[in-house]
Amino acid sequence: MSLTIRQVGPCFAGEVDGVDLTKALSPEDVAAIHAGMDEFAVLAFRGQMLDDDQQMAFTLSLGSIERAIGTSLRKKDEYRLPDTFADVSNLDKENKPFDREDRRRLFAIGNRLWHSDSSFKTTPAKYSILNARSIPTKGGNTEFADMRAAYDTLDDETKAEVEGLVCEHSQMYSREQVGFTDFTDEERERFKPVRQVLRRTHPVTGRKSLYLASHAGSIVGWLIPEARVFLHDLVEHATQRKFVYSHEWRLGDLVMWDNRQTMHRARPFP
């Protein structure tokens, strides 16, 4: 059975059939997945019961990876997983849930804001991959917004206004929005803002998109209040329901998304 993709979102997002991610992929399947990502920006693979080694093998078949170093408040001796995996769980290294007041948990609540992974790094992320090993009793959906459709539907005046703008991104900006400001001097240095263009062009398809995130807290050359209101308005436009796909997780789901073309957010769970 050959790999097929059918659209499941309102204007993007596809569900993939005809591939077993526990096995090595053929070059044709790898090429089809990359092409599917270029077109749909989010791909869901149902029923993929992977272990860590299988998930890493699939990941590496698509390209090199970003090491998950220094992007959370976990110290090196607190890592639950190797740094080949980005641990965004609510678990400590003993696999026990963080206490409610734990600053690592409070910091991670920022993932419920619309964002693009690693936009706060000089070289931001291309793909992210998430596999459902267990699911909550309720809630916990992941929502995705199509930033290409968001750009396409801007009025001409706003398209002209975003052209050439550069934003500063930092996790300190996103965490401020949920009231988390408890950063050490070392963390403030580590999370220093980086600059990203606001309007991007996809290198394969040539489609233009907005590059937004809750991590974006300023626009170079703009006054902060004006910049934040402008960015807030763009995020509101980009996350209209007609541009959003909400993934309701089932055990074994693997979902991957292109951070260059989408924003996403986690929804609350017990």
Give a description of the structure:
The structure is a single chain. Helices cover 27% and strands 20% of the residues. With 270 residues, the protein is an alpha+beta fold. It has one domain: Clavaminate synthase-like (Double-stranded beta-helix), CATH 3.60.130.10. It has a five-stranded mixed sheet, covered by helices on one side. It has a three-stranded antiparallel sheet with strand order 11-5-13. Strands 7-6-10 form a three-stranded antiparallel sheet. The radius of gyration is 18 Å and the shape is globular. The mean pLDDT is 96.
| Distance between the first and last residues' Cα | 39 Å
- Integer-rounded radius of gyration: 18 Å
Please provide the ordered H/E string of secondary-structure elements: EEHEHHEEHHEHHEEEEHEEE
CATH class: Alpha Beta
Overall pLDDT, averaged? 96
| Individual helix count | 8
- The percentage of residues in β strands lies in 15-25%
The total number of structural domains is 1
Assigned CATH architecture? 4-Layer Sandwich
Main pleated-sheet profile: 5 strands, mixed
Q: Ranges with pLDDT <50 over ≥5 residues?
A: none
What oligomerization state is this entry in? single chain
Based on Cα principal axes, name the global outline.
Answer: globular
Total number of strands: 13
CATH superfamily name? Clavaminate synthase-like
